[in-house]
Design a protein that fits this description.
With 230 residues, the chain is of the alpha+beta class. The chain has helices at residues 10-22, 41-44, 65-76, 88-115, 121-144, 155-164, 167-171, 180-190, 193-200, 213-219, 221-229, and strands at 2-6, 26-30, 54-57, 60-63. It comes from Hoeflea ulvae.
Amino acid sequence: MIKFFYNGAPNPLKIALFLEEAGLDYEAIPVDTKRGDQHTAEYRAINPNSKVPAIIDGDITIFDSNAILLYLAEKTGQFLPTDGGKSRGQLLSWLMFVASGIGPYSGQAVHFRHFAPGENPYARDRYAHEARRHWQIIEDRLAASPYMLGGDYSIVDMSVWGWATRIPFMMGDDAMAGYPSLARLMAEINARPAAARAVSLPDRHPFQQAFDDDAIRNLYPHIFAARQAK
């Protein structure tokens, strides 16, 4: 059985979606990052970057959400292009685009919009601009085809879905209206029973909700240290 280390953030939910779509047996193991579970020696042995998600599949350990998606898709033969490998280049390109562009810029847009201390107009504007720019590339792709790889629902769509759920928090409540093709894909995926199960997974465990001093120290130690120095 696959051990799945997770919380309710965008990257772990991508993996939850795949596991539910593929019907794989897995054990969901909560990593409460507000409580600092990610910094324990036991978890760092699984992911030295102290992030979620990670999986252990027998004697194989994998971290980074898109690496996990690719591993699971190739292991099961599910949610990959059906053209005999001709689209593998596009599969890898879009997976890496999400990993290196969508995720980082979306995450920083959220951070500087909601969590960074003080006024950071340049940082807020820069990351908001880059988040919008990257999501427009996704929108343009989906305006030309039903899914990111054309006619097949794939792990790339799952990877996009994980972060797209946070667009209102990232760029404002009405932001999704600017991405109608992405909204169409989101509605389709959200209607799938596997997505409902993935989204409800964090309800099984008592993750800390309060964003208190301990949570700040565990998530943003530089902010905590700066506060303590004052």
